[in-house]
């Protein structure tokens, strides 16, 4: 059986992109795991999957993939909203406010500093927010 283990986006602004993704991906539980030889950075956990922001291997300018998108799943709708808001706070562009869409998924969309499209989502029935210990 195969499994997706990593994905990458290209950037023409690697220092800005690393600052963007350092702040954003920590909300998804992904931390920097190594510096990439292209000047980029790879994020993840020991269990994977990993996400990288890289300079293109061929040395040509990075371009946005038309139809490409990378999605991050969250436990709650509040987490989706927080991730989306952080992306916009860091200079990303909104591509769709958080809301329920097709099949009951709670989705939000934005583009990073280079125009790569990202999605945050929670499954149907996901709680709106985490319960505090006093609510258990």
Would you write up a description of this structure?
The chain is α/β, with parallel strands linked by helices and 136 residues long. The strands form 2 sheets. The chain has a 4-stranded mixed β-sheet, covered by helices on one side. A 4-stranded mixed β-sheet has the order 5-8-7-6, covered by helices on one side. 18% of the residues lie in helices and 33% in strands. β3 (41-44) and β4 form a beta hairpin. It is globular and about 45 Å long. It has helices spanning 14-25, 77-89, and strands spanning 6-10, 31-35, 41-44, 50-54, 70-73, 93-101, 105-111, 117-122. It has a single domain (6-56, 64-135), classed as 2,3-Dihydroxybiphenyl 1,2-Dioxygenase, domain 1.
Please provide the count of β strands. 8
Going across the major beta sheet, what is the strand order?
A: 1-4-3-2
Corresponding CATH superfamily: 2,3-Dihydroxybiphenyl 1,2-Dioxygenase, domain 1
* Amino- and carboxy-terminal Cα gap: 39 Å
Class derived from helix and strand content: alpha/beta
Largest sheet: 4 strands, mixed
- The average pLDDT is 92
Q: Give the total of domains.
A: 1
Q: What is the C-alpha radius of gyration, as a whole number of Å?
A: 15 Å
Report the principal-axis shape. globular
Provide the low-confidence segments as ranges. none
The appropriate CATH architecture is Roll
Report strand %. 25-35%
């Amino acid at each position: 059986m195969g499994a997706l283990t990593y994905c990458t986006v290209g950037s023409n602004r690697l220092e800005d992109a690393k600052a963007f993704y350092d702040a954003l991906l920590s909300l998804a539980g992904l931390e920097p795991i190594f510096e990439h030889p292209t000047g980029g950075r790879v994020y993840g956990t020991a269990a994977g999957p990993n996400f990288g922001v890289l300079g293109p291997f061929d040395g040509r300018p990075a371009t946005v993939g038309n139809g490409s998108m990378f999605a991050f799943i969250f436990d709650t709708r509040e987490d989706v909203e927080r991730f989306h808001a952080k992306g916009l706070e860091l200079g990303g562009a909104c591509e769709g406010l958080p809301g329920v869409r097709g099949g009951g998924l709670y989705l939000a969309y934005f583009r990073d500093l280079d125009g790569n499209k990202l999605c945050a989502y929670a499954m149907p029935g996901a709680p709106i927010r985490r319960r505090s210990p006093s609510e258990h």
